[in-house]
Amino acid sequence: MNILLLAMPDSFEHMPHISVRMPNGALASLAGNVDPHHAVAIADLILARHRVRETVEQLVREHAPDVVGLSIMTFQRSTAMRIITLIKHLKPEARIVVGGYDPSLATEAYTSAEAPPIDFIVRGEGEITFRELLRALEADTGLDRIAGLSWREGNTLHHNPARPVSRLEGGEIRLPDRSARVLRGYTMLGRQVDVIETSRGCTYDCSFCSIVNMRGRNFHPYDFDRVIADIRDAHAHGARSLFIIDDNVMLNVERFAALCRAIIDAGLNHIDYSVQAMTSSIANHGATLAPLMRKAGFRYVFLGIENIIDEDLEFLRARSKNQHRVGGKSAGNATQKAIEYIHANHMLVVGGLIVGNPGDTVQSVQTNLRYAWHAFDWPYIQHPTPYPGTPMAADFRARGLIIHERLDEYDGTTAVVKTEHMAAEDVEFLRWQIERWIKAKHIWATFRHDPWFIITHAIQLGLYIFRGCTWRTFLGLEPEQAAFRRYRAIRRQERHYL
């Protein structure tokens, strides 16, 4: 069969299209785990975000798909629905399969009368479910035994039992198939980028996170032979920068240290690596771990700080993963110590904060933002967003703090909830106000590592960072709120892809 796999064009504000265009790792993994006689094409539409309709039309014309699969997050839902409608118009007989966080946790949205006709929903991990679905379609056999699948039979929708999460042992999940990608242009600061996965799962239950509802509280690693083979494959396909997309790779610090040594021993430490990390892991083990990370080629470390105020960490259920421990006892918040270790070893901090929690005041939000200005190399500051199935969503709904449910704005950087003391727009304004300058400050750090990229893209980066601002803004001839309103209008316009 001919299979077309699509990732949505909707992007995050903190990943400027001019400098970061990351591939969808799930689709490459799906492609690598179907039976080899199928013809699979992967299209990350983030590479064609200004010509989505034309690109989809061309892909359907060239690949004549029998099955079209779409990977969807919540803020991408409306775009996905429009793409599905377009595909059914272009090729009515094509079977439509959706998967990812949003279809897994908000299945009812894809089965409602308002949704376009969707044939199958893959819930949870998709590799095995999708493989079995294709086999059933090819053999024209029953679908009722495929775990993790929801499927349509006339006007009736069937939901099969959930599929247990894979333990990632014994090679059941094969390597991704990067050769199935049909669009080009993945980049991070001018270097071709790819993603790899060394483990899945997390044992924490942060209130803002969808992972626990998606797969439960667990942690399963791949063996290092597979991980090194995956890195080599990404490098062979042109990657010079890799982002490790594990849910929480630092749950097992000893394993992560061994991974760093394996990268070094394999001679793959000339690649730039980025990783997501817990502050507690870095703070408690940084004296030995941080130098090893730098030797292995790590450059950017995304720290899930979440907040520097204890009351907010309590609401986010993130206090324990941000604890610095000395002699087995708590020594307070681990953030500052973690950042010191990262900077001392010439790595850069991408600081993850969440501001706009129920008890937040102007003072508490500004306290977090001032810290970000002094401590972060690149900001990843978000607003709490009530994603389907998360404890946070139920909490905000019970308190009546959700201001609207326009899901295309559920992108993390558009405030869709108010606090008990602040309007949502006021929280977003404070974030926007300081975040522009942190991003601008980062241009110098980028220049030292990638000078040619900055020389050739500095103007475009500046225009992106300061969207909505004019010369009147910088001369103080208009209030910053006027520039902020223009910025928000630009963001609304950017969300319409077709």
Q: Could you please describe the fold and organization of this structure?
A:
This protein has about 500 residues and is of the alpha/beta class. The chain folds into two domains: about 160 residues, Response regulator (Rossmann fold, 3-Layer(aba) Sandwich), CATH 3.40.50; about 270 residues, pyruvate-formate lyase- activating enzyme, CATH 3.80.30.20. It has 17 helices and 19 strands. The strands form five sheets. A seven-stranded mixed β-sheet has the order 3-1-4-5-6-7-8, sandwiched between helices. It has a six-stranded parallel β-sheet with strand order 10-13-14-15-18-19. The longest helix is centred in the C-terminal third of the chain and has 26 residues. The radius of gyration is 22 Å and the shape is globular. The relative contact order is 0.10.
Radius of gyration: 22 Å
CATH architecture of the largest domain: Alpha-Beta Horseshoe
Unreliable stretches covering 5 or more consecutive residues: none
Number of helices: 17
What is the number of beta strands? 19
CATH class of the largest domain: Alpha Beta
Biggest beta sheet attributes: 7 strands, mixed
**Side-by-side strand order of the widest sheet:** 3-1-4-5-6-7-8
Tell me the domain tally: 2
Helix-strand makeup class? alpha/beta
Distance between the termini: 28 Å
The CATH superfamily of the largest domain bears the name tm_1862 like domain
Average pLDDT rating = 94
